[in-house]
TrEMBL record:
A Pfam cross-reference name: GGDEF
Membrane topology: Multi-pass membrane protein
Coiled coil start-end: none
Subcellular location: Membrane
All residue ranges annotated as the GGDEF domain in the record: 250-383
UniProt-recorded name of the protein: diguanylate cyclase
Enzyme's top EC category: transferase
Entry's transmembrane regions: 185-206
Keyword Transferase among record annotations: no
Catalysed conversion reaction: 2 GTP = 3',3'-c-di-GMP + 2 diphosphate
Length: 405
């Protein structure tokens, strides 16, 4: 009887260890797969967001071409080609870029469902944009050809592109929830087994699962290129700071930072050079800002910094320091040194502000005014003329000999 009980205990112990090993392997493989899917979701969100900017850029460049700006024609053609290529990748997927195809029912409905599907709208928008690019700038039919492009860029197309981004964000959240459920089930099984058999296996398991969770949270909340907070996470942190500032009646300011002539940097040094500039900009701000400051990337070359406990005068001092330090910051890429500058717009939150939109709009207006005044400078919203509002600016091509300007 004692021998049988001993054998039973041994079998139970070995079985428990095997179960732990199998659960560890299953958790590792499952979480690794979700990580890969999340990486693809991050790429999708990045390209989807760029599609919205490209639609506005195409409309702006088409308008420039209609005024006789010859340099806008080549840029318009390139933007249309990039818009069409990105749309095809988002629709069909791209294994090299880890982009999954638009395979969920919701995405299928957005892309292909109904008479006004996104696929049809994009195709029509591209065709009309190419028609404008092929026309002579002084063609009498140009105004009529521009009208549907402007209209599409303002609402129907932009609205559908926004819907695609929201759907990808929803899918990303569902994947995080799936990971949470997998983690909970795996943790419960392992914990119950280890409580009965072997506490020595428990701690390494928890460390690994916690590590996966931390990586997923980082992927979901930060920009993969620069490590800065993404727009959604920045907004959440900013709202929390605003609530604290209202409670204690403390000032809060917002900086909008945009790299000058960034398209020209990409044209001169390639996208690797542009990425190096963005990483250097983000790395410098991360290293020099206070731990309490909130720093995020809003898309493209535009970044935002929330400064708690900081009024407009102090924020302007911080911005001037950032502007000067970045202008002196050399960036190395493919054996070349890149110099770049930034323009910064500043706005202070009203004492009763409950969201960031109004202040963001004022900081954007100040940023565009800094661009209009020659770039590489700081402008506060109080320095703006009455009624000033953001407007679209195009950076001039960057010549290799003046790349540091």
């Amino acid at each position: 009887m004692t021998e049988l009980s001993g054998r039973s205990l041994t079998v139970a112990y070995v079985t428990a260890l095997v179960l732990v090993a199998l659960m560890s392997l299953a958790s590792h493989l499952t979480l690794h797969q979700v990580l890969d899917q999340h990486q693809g979701a991050a790429s999708v969100l990045n390209i989807s967001g760029r599609q919205r900017m490209l639609s506005q850029r195409i409309a702006g460049l088409a308008g420039q071409w209609s005024t006789g700006d010859a340099s806008a024609r080549a840029a318009l053609r390139a933007s249309i080609d990039q818009f069409a290529l990105s749309h095809a990748r988002l629709r069909q997927g791209d294994a090299e870029l880890q982009l999954p195809p638009a395979s969920t029912p919701q995405l299928q409905a957005l892309y292909f469902g109904g008479e006004h599907s996104l696929d049809a709208q994009v195709g029509e928008f591209i065709a009309k944009a190419r028609a404008v690019e092929e026309m002579a700038w002084n063609d009498p039919a140009m105004p009529a050809a521009l009208a549907p492009i402007y209209a599409a860029a303002r609402e129907p197309l932009l609205g559908r592109l926004d819907a695609v981004v929201r759907e990808h964000e929803r899918t990303s959240r569902e994947q995080l929830q799936l990971l949470q459920r997998i983690q909970n089930v795996s943790l419960l099984v392992v914990l119950l087994t280890l409580l009965a058999e072997a506490f020595g296996i428990f701690r390494p398991m928890v460390r690994r699962i916690a590590g996966y969770t931390k990586r997923l949270v980082a992927i979901a909340s930060t920009d993969p290129l620069t490590g800065a907070l993404n727009r959604r996470s920045f907004t959440d942190r900013a709202l929390a700071e605003l609530a604290r500032a209202r409670r204690y009646e403390r000032p809060v300011s917002l900086l909008m930072i945009d790299a000058d002539r960034f398209k020209a940097v990409n044209d001169t040094y390639g996208h690797a050079g542009g990425d190096a500039v963005l990483r250097a900009l983000a790395g410098h701000l991360t290293a020099t800002l206070r731990p309490s400051d909130v720093f995020g990337r809003f898309g493209g070359e535009e970044f935002a910094v929330l400064l708690p406990e900081t009024g407009l005068v102090s924020a302007e001092i911080v911005a001037e320091r950032i502007c000067a330090e970045l202008a002196a910051l050399p960036v190395q890429s493919n054996g070349q040194e890149i110099r770049f500058t930034v323009s910064i717009g500043i706005a202070e939150f009203e004492s009763e502000a409950t969201d960031i939109k109004a202040t963001l709009d004022r900081a954007d207006a100040a940023l565009y005014q800094a661009k209009a005044r020659g770039r590489n400078r700081v402008v506060t919203d109080r320095a703006l003329p009455s009624g000033d509002a953001p407007h679209f600016l195009h950076d001039a091509p960057l010549q290799p000999s003046t790349a540091a300007a």
